[in-house]
Amino acid sequence: MMRHLAVAAVLLTPSAGLTDPITLIDPAAFAWETTAEGVAFAPLHGDRFQGAYQAMVRLPARTVSPPHVKSASMFGVLLQGEMIHYAGDQDPETAQKIGPGAFYSIPGGLGHVSACVSAGPCIAYLSQDAAFDFVPVTP
Q1: Which InterPro entries does the entry mention (predicted)?
Q2: DSSP strand E in 18-87: where?
């Protein structure tokens, strides 16, 4: 009985075993950093050049990446705009278009193209399981 009470006390103790506080970031406070290509990243958790991270990304309308690979797998949820992501050997005309609320996953090492195909900018939440890189490839 005492063992059950001790377990219950630990489970009911606020932040038991946790060291990080709750993080809340208002969109107006996002620290957007824009690349030379016009793509902007706003860090949410972690440093994208050091290891696993979470960030917001904003692509200008009609932005099309060159074919590339990333070492780490990427996971995203599109929040605004319309995008296509397709393997480097796929015809972009046959790529599935996704809109707000859609989830996508791109395995590390897969040559692919990502494009914001909407008339306005695309904004997505991104997570990668290791550091960000962008290695151009020849299709």
Answers
A1: ChrR-like_cupin_dom (IPR025979), RmlC-like_jellyroll (IPR014710), RmlC_Cupin_sf (IPR011051)
A2: 33-34, 40-45, 53-59, 68-69, 74-80, 83-87
Q: pLDDT per residue over 54-79, tens digit each?
A: 999 999 999 999 999 999 999 999 99
In a domain, 114, yes or no: yes
Residue with tokens 């046959």: 94
When divided into structural domains, the chain yields a total of: 1
Strand 53-59 with 122-128, pairing = antiparallel
Helix (H) or strand (E) holding 119: none
- CATH number of the domain residue 125 falls in: 2.60.120.10
The Cβ of residue 59 has, within 10 Å, a number of other Cβ atoms equal to 23
Domain coverage including residue 103: 23-136
Among the listed ranges 8-12, 39-43, 102-106, which one has the minimum average pLDDT value?
8-12
Of 56, 66, 76, 61, which is closest to residue 112 (Cα–Cα)?
66
What letter does residue 64 receive in the DSSP assignment? B
